[in-house]
Amino acid sequence: MADLKMLKNTQIIILGVCIVIATIVSSIIFSKGFLKVIQFKQEMITVTGSAQKEIISDFTVWNGNFSRCEVDLAMAYKNLKEDLEKIKSYLISKGVSKNEIIASQISTETKYKHKKDDDGFETKEIESYCLEQYIQVQSNDVHTIAQISRESTELIEQGIIFESKAPEYFYTKLEELKIEMLARATENAKQRAGNMAKSTGNKIGFMRSARMGVFQITPVNSTEVSDWGENDTSSLYKKVTAVVTVSFAIE
Fold it and tell me: Measured between alpha carbons, how far is 223 from 232 in angstroms, rounded to an integer?
């Protein structure tokens, strides 16, 4: 009986030792895993990536205005109508399609003579009627419209009081371009992060987060930037810049 009792006590002691050892080992394993989790959460690198591309505008809007001032309102309207037909013919002869030309409604201003009667009051005597009309061209043929806008002073030689505005230039595939540029900027950020990590004997892992920065559209040789982004419409040739801020885990 004494031997049996001693055997049981020995087994209990061995079992207790095994439990203690298993607890210690599992604690070490858990601690290492926990440290890896902490490391994954805390060790990362954040960089800014950018990409640039030069583009040519593929759509333009050009505005001009013309006017006539006459003592007789009907004559002013007649002359303005003739001017409109001459302008349309001029534009079509230069390669502009008829459906690309938009004419606004006519605005009228009555001008009075600065005369006073015997009592010192304005006489309200009409000096002339000034009529003005705007014409707009919307076209994908940006180079042709750019040239016409420079040469449109030729209309003055025809007796037309014409004023040309600077064309506005746009890029119609902007959404597709944004996707391309953001991908390139992210790749640039990855390369920068990889080079920085490599210099310290590490390498980057999964991308942890990404935030899009400003998207700039500026003239090709411009250095202008803004916190809210530029969207230039004055230049035919543009430069697009995309910026992203990306965080990567460090392995």
Answer: 12
